[in-house]
Please model this.
Amino acid sequence: MYGPGVRVGNWLETALSEEMRVSEMKKRRESGNLLLDRTRAVYDRFYQETVLGPPQDVLAFGALVQLRPVKINVCRQQDIDQNLVLSVVITQEGLHRNCNTINEMCDLSVAPAPHPSLRSSFRIVSPNDDDRSGQYLAYGEKFRLQTLEPADEPMYLFSGPKRLNLSLPVEKAFYTTKHGEVTLPLGLVSHKNCGPSARVPSSHTHFFCAHKDPDLRFESEGKTIPVNYPLIIVHAVTNRNLAVENVVANTLFGPEFQVSVQTYKNVYKQETWKNQWKFTY
Model:
């Protein structure tokens, strides 16, 4: 008197579909293509430990360093105990595209670094392709910051002025503002996409260091730069400073502070804590 709730054909089709789904998941798990497995692999790769240096009292080309904000004010409290440094963070788009190393889709942030790692270490290199390893870097002298990977295609930090249509030079998932205007973002560009006829001019990867005291900048220009000493990092083309923002972005590695290329000064025409950094080994 009572018929089955579903047809036998539909039941068989559902069972086979479930069996195929489980089989496909097992294959992807064995090959390491599950999203969870890829995320773990990227996490382990980006946190691979590195060795900084060679340690010395002043900055030099070729040195492997970390870039640390002097302090960060959050809710009027100084946050200085988390070992925060400039870091590379992979985006969800990069993860879905199976990118397992540093690439142009990565963002920059300021993140806790319990130890020097692939994502938080940078090499100081010359503004052109000359090898100046071992030569001292001076105030006012241009340089590039290069990531450690990929080894066969150097990646540089860069920014740039807004385009004619007021669009930004770097596409990012998160943005900050100053007085309602979007600040210039900081991004990564590969060597092949950087040059006279490339997407990004070489000059957009150039930075230089300025003394933290505006009254001493003229006389300090050309002098060597002490390690672990507060300074200002200026983007050469826009003449704006590298800045850490007290704005948190929820990245794949957790909540981290955003960075920008924007000058912040107080009523005394001195750069605030947002623009103060120091190089460390």
Q: What stands out?
A: The helical segments are 8-31, 35-46, 92-96, 217-220. The longest strand covers residues 240-251.
